[in-house]
Amino acid sequence: MSLIVQKYGGSSVSDAESIKRVAKRIVATRRAGNDVVVAVSAMGDTTDDLLDLAHQVAPIPEPRELDMLLTAGERISMALLAMAIENLGHDARSFTGSQAGMITDAQHGAARIVDVTPVRVREALDEGAIAIVAGFQGFNRGTGDITTLGRGGSDTTAVALAAALDADICEIYTDVDGVFTADPRVVHRARKLDRVTSEEMLELAASGAKVLYIRAVEYARRHGVTLHVRSSFNNNEGTIVYNPTEPGRDENGVPVEEPIIAGVAHDLTEAKITVVGVPDIPGKAAQIFNIVAKSGANIDMIVQNVSAAATGLTDISFTLPKSDAQAVLTALTVERDQVGFSTLQHDDQIGKLSLVGAGMRTNVGVSAQLFTALFEAGINIEMISTSEIRISVVTRADMLNDAVRAVHSAFGLDGEAEAVVYAGTGR
Ligand code: ADP
Ligand code: ASP
Ligand code: MG
């Protein structure tokens, strides 16, 4: 008997019909002789709708109350799914995050899992029931409050349950056939990857490929959980996200051939702030980024211009989540005289393209090929950053989709068939 953890995303449980379809699939897995634990997301765009509502009653909602509100979404879907399974004649029991033992730190909106004690989930399994756990939520022992794990956090719930229960596999069911070489909503000829390393998946997720949440991939890497990302709309094999035992070998130590490029990711959620006219003397960058850090913003790329010798002034630009920009602008404005810069510029019309592949370590010329592809497509590059296995560039937001398609083709990633998106609004 295997223990299988299955996670169903919002697009797979968007209405009553979908919930019944997913329930059938879960029951079939149980009847095939497996123990089944399910992590479920809120129905469709429920979380976004609840967020909109919150912002209608308060511009900056109280974080504790926001988590209370948002966790209601998963509570609805978990109960409905359990009812649908019961209706098919199988025992099912739903649990909130705290009932399932998802213990987190106290960081509302982006809590980290610190411990998982799924005692009641185990009991349900031992009694032959299917356990349904509300995704995306946890409980902090210190404050006694409910927390959420960050947008897309149901993936983390599934992975954490799989690790704690020592599951044989963690299946992530979504509205596409797996992890593709690019978002199929943007690149119609994107190809499904049969396998991808967790290292590459981490970079793709960090760069905007929301098919998996970055913290879920991190957790899976740390705890040695293998993921199978697949569609809930058919029985096709999806993508295995694995942890190599060593470079060039799979999770079982068998040699595998890795392509140079795994894929192209894109991200429209960042903004750029430029601090204009900064005195070009030691300590200024430290001063600026200390102010930024205090405001709690998570910065991504940084570029400092060569100072104009005549003026002794330089400009420093950095990117950060759009949602953090206002707080940073306010914090910097307060300290303007102290730092001695002249003005601030805020640009929320940027896009980021990232090319990811472990083969970049050993292949020269990848950046040259990337910049050439962008040049030939008439796309201007505004910022560049790299890691060992990733190159990212900032472009105008309205050019980003064209840039992704051009780069995807230039690296020979286009597939034969059209990639299918089965559901979801892409929101
Ligand atoms: P779920 O509701 O199942 O959690 P998400 O919307 O969070 O689904 O993630 C699935 C979506 O991720 C797909 O519909 C697709 O548009 C998007 N996506 C972005 N990049 C990729 C990629 N490289 N491969 C597959 N899907 C991707
Ligand atoms: N419902 C939450 C969200 O929309 C969590 C998830 O779907 O993974 O972010
Ligand atoms: Mg998701």
Quick overview:
Helices cover 33% and strands 24% of the residues. It has 427 residues and is an alpha/beta fold. The strands form 5 sheets. It has an 8-stranded mixed beta sheet, sandwiched between helices. A 4-stranded antiparallel beta sheet has the order 13-18-20-19, sandwiched between helices.
Write a structural description.
It is a single chain. The protein has a domain at 3-257: Acetylglutamate kinase-like (Carbamate kinase, 3-Layer(aba) Sandwich). Helices cover 33% and strands 24% of the residues. The chain contains 12 helices and 20 strands. The protein has helices at residues 16-31, 46-57, 63-87, 119-126, 154-164, 198-206, 214-223, 284-294, 322-334, 336-339, 366-376, 400-410, and strands spanning 3-8, 35-40, 92-95, 102-104, 113-116, 130-134, 137-139, 146-148, 169-174, 195-197, 227-231, 239-242, 263-267, 270-279, 302-304, 313-321, 343-347, 350-356, 383-387, 390-396. The strands form 5 sheets. Strands 3-6-2-1-9-11-12-10 form an 8-stranded mixed sheet, with helices on both faces. Strands 13-18-20-19 form a 4-stranded antiparallel sheet, sandwiched between helices. Strands 15-16-14-17 form a 4-stranded antiparallel sheet, with helices on one face. The longest helix has 25 residues, at 63-87. The protein starts with a strand and ends in a 17-residue tail after the last helix. Aspartic acid binds at residues 9-10, 41-42, 47, 73, 135-136, 151-155. The site of adenosine-5'-diphosphate has 22 residues, from loops.
